[in-house]
């Protein structure tokens, strides 16, 4: 999905890119050619074994289907280890239960090269594995299946180097500084919180080492929790429990074509604005927005990919800064009646006659009219229905009828005012629901 696709020197860039939104959501052929990494001294072999006991989890694809999401969640875990090209990694694997074993990933999605650069994968076998790395990069473990029931123990014995690896609630500030100073043979670092993993270059981590890493990781984890709650994912039931893949990847990238973006398994942030994921005060609309993309559901049709993502951003803004409202401060509400006054032939919700921000106001009006539980109920309904929505008309049809069912109102007049011109029988289907008209003109509501 391209941005219309989930900013002063650096601040000016932030403003510009915030207003234009992230530059990619379009599904396009994978570009796996970006594998080049910065030149760094070759890591020395680590002698102390590093052990991981892993439990198989439900696959990201299965969770995508359960939650009816547009994108796959981060389905791998960090090791805090790094390897260089041609190094031989030795890892002993013990099957503790079940029959399946983990896969190693070398490299981080989008980290180097082009926006969709991929890690190299290696399937593990029981016993000693001697793997000659074909790439430089961080080592990750993926252990998933549609019917998970296995456990395994991995013991890395040689061929790798430890990286600066901050773990919230465990690593102290002095330990972090010492790691950044002494573990200087690797280019990247990881900061891990309850719900997030941040990958950035070591130089950036040093630049922001005086920031509060606990506050940073707590804030990003809180953003994800807010967006989960907004989605109605605040229960232990199969329907409403959060994604089993709890930690979302926020990685630095270097593709100058893009600023910040979200895609399968990650969100990514250009290195020149990396404070957005390293400085607590700068963790604002950009990360709110990109993490919002990973909460969007399958009914998101093409024209609104960069619109509905901001219902999640606004949910975070309401909690973090309740006295701030981007639609008010940017005077977006003043543009709404101008758009709604256009002739029917010009008023088309799915083109650029109205900006993504003006179109966001339609979704905000539904929340204003029907309360804070409107969207949690709507997103939950989608998980229950599991609709078949193969094209934009079907997605619009599903959203419009579901909004009527959740609100208990016939919203045809409201949708027609906003120019939702659907090439289907949706308005007849809404009428067949026999719902009453809203008691007020919802299109006049604003903050």
From TrEMBL:
Name of this protein: Peptidase M60 domain-containing protein
Peptidase M60 domain span: 74-371
Species whose genome carries this gene: Pedobacter frigoris
PANTHER family in the record: EXPERIMENTAL AUTOIMMUNE PROSTATITIS ANTIGEN 2-RELATED, SI:CH211-210B2.2-RELATED
UniProt cross-references to InterPro entries, sorted A to Z: M60-like_N, Pep_M60_3, Peptidase_M60_dom, TCAF
């Amino acid at each position: 999905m391209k941005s219309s696709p989930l900013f002063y020197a650096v601040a000016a860039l932030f403003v510009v890119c915030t207003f234009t939104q992230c530059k990619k959501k379009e599904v396009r052929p994978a570009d796996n050619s970006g594998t080049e990494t910065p030149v760094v001294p070759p890591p020395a072999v680590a002698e102390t074994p590093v052990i991981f006991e892993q439990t198989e989890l439900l696959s990201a694809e299965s969770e995508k289907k359960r939650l009816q999401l547009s994108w796959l969640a981060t389905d791998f875990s960090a090791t805090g280890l790094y390897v260089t090209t041609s190094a031989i990694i030795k890892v002993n694997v013990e099957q503790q239960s079940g029959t399946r074993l983990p896969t190693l990933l070398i490299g981080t999605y989008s980290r180097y090269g082009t926006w969709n650069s991929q890690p190299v994968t290696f399937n593990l076998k029981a016993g000693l594995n001697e793997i000659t790395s074909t790439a430089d990069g961080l080592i990750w473990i993926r252990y998933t299946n549609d019917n998970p029931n296995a456990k395994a123990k991995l013991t890395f014995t040689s061929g790798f180097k430890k990286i600066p690896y901050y773990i919230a609630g465990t690593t102290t500030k002095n330990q972090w500084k010492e790691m950044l100073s002494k573990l200087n043979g690797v280019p990247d670092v990881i900061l891990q919180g309850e719900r997030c993993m941040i990958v950035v270059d070591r130089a950036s981590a040093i630049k922001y080492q005086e920031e509060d890493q606990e506050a940073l990781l707590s804030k990003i984890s809180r953003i994800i929790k807010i967006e989960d709650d907004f989605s109605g994912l605040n229960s232990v039931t199969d329907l409403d429990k959060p994604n089993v893949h709890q930690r979302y990847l926020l990685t630095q990238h270097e593709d100058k074509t893009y600023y910040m973006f979200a895609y399968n398994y990650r969100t990514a942030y250009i290195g020149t604005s990396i404070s957005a994921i390293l400085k607590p005060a700068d963790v604002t609309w950009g990360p709110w927005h990109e993490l919002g993309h990973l909460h969007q559901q399958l009914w998101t049709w093409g024209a609104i990919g960069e619109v509905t993502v901001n219902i999640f951003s606004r949910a975070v803004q309401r909690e973090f800064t309740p006295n701030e409202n981007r639609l008010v401060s940017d005077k977006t509400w003043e543009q709404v009646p101008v758009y709604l006054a256009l002739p029917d032939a010009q008023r088309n919700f799915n083109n650029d006659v109205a900006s993504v921000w003006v179109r966001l106001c339609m979704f905000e009006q539904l929340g204003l009219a029907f309360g804070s539980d409107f969207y949690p109920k709507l997103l939950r309904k989608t998980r229950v229905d599991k609709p078949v929505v193969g094209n934009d008309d079907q997605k619009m049809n599903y959203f419009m009828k579901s909004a009527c069912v959740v609100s208990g109102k016939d919203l045809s007049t409201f949708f027609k005012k906003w120019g939702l011109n659907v090439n289907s029988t949706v308005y007849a289907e809404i009428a067949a629901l026999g719902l009453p008209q809203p008691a007020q003109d919802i299109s006049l509501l604003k903050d």
